[in-house]
Amino acid sequence: MPLYCPPIEDVVPQFRRHSLDAIIERFGLGCLHRHRALDDAKVLWDFMGFIKGTIGEGRIAEAIDALLEAPTFPALLDESSVLSLPRSPGVYIFYGRGREALYVGAATNIRDSVQSMFLDDGRGPKKIALFGQIADVGSEETPGELGAILRQSLPIMELTN
Predict the structure, then answer these.
(1) How far is CA 78 from CA 73, 75, 137, in A?
(2) Using one digit for the tens of pLDDT, what is the confidence trace for 78-108?
(3) 3-state SS string over the chain?
(4) Would the CA dihedral through 48, 49, 52, 58 be positive or negative?
(5) Would you place residue 3 in the very low, low, confident or very high pLDDT band (cuts 50, 70, 90)?
(6) How would residue 74 be classed by pLDDT, with cut points 50, 70 and 90?
(7) Which residue has the higher pLDDT, 3 or 133?
(8) pTM confidence score
(9) In DSSP terms, which residues pair with 137 in a beta bridge?
(10) Among 29, 84, 98, 155, which is least packed by CB within 10 angstroms?
(11) Cα distance between residue 7 and residue 36, in whole Å
């Protein structure tokens, strides 16, 4: 069972900032030339050594695996709009900033299908370009999978005309 990895704000709520500068200060790490690649990388290496000694290598691996399995939402898309989608059959439409339809999909479980679109599974250039434009997601429930497939065809015809 993968380890749930909560946001860092939940792990250390007493700290407001979690930037590299804040980590350097908080853990007393040295950095000769801040904002230089090698020195910044050494700070991260030292920090990982500290964490490894504190919580153990196994827990770090579990946390990384959990993060890699979690969806990464597009920058313009509010995560709550995805989490509020229904878990029923239907269609979903990704919209751009101007509310133009970018992509239409059919699903047996709308929320799970949309979330699976945002899993990092070796995204190609077309998928990356699409994700950079997604600002909203809408959905329409249908009686079943066949209804979703039939309903999906209408917006697709509108997009291609």
Answers:
(1) 8, 8, 9
(2) 989 999 999 999 999 999 999 998 999 999 9
(3) CCCCCCCHHHHCCCCCCCCHHHHHHHHCCCCCCCCCHHHHHHHHHHHHHHHHHHHCHHHHHHHHHHHHHCCCCCCCCCHHHHHCCCCCCEEEEEECCCCCEEEEEEECCHHHHHHHHCCCCCCCHHHHHHHCCCCEEEEEECCCHHHHHHHHHHHHHHHHC
(4) positive
(5) very low
(6) confident
(7) 133
(8) 0.57
(9) 94
(10) 98
(11) 27
Record the tokens describing residue 58, joined without a space: 């196994």
Around Cβ 138, how many Cβ atoms within 10 Å? 15
d(CA 3, CA 91): 32
Side-by-side strand order, sheet with 90-95: 101-107, 90-95, 136-141
pLDDT (0 to 100) of residue 123: 67
Phi-psi region of 35 (alpha: psi -120 to 50; beta: other; left: phi over 0): left
pLDDT 10s digits, 19-36: 899 889 888 898 999 999
Q: For residues 124 and 115, give the distance between their C-alpha atoms in angstroms, rounded to a whole number.
A: 17
CA distance 16 to 137: 31
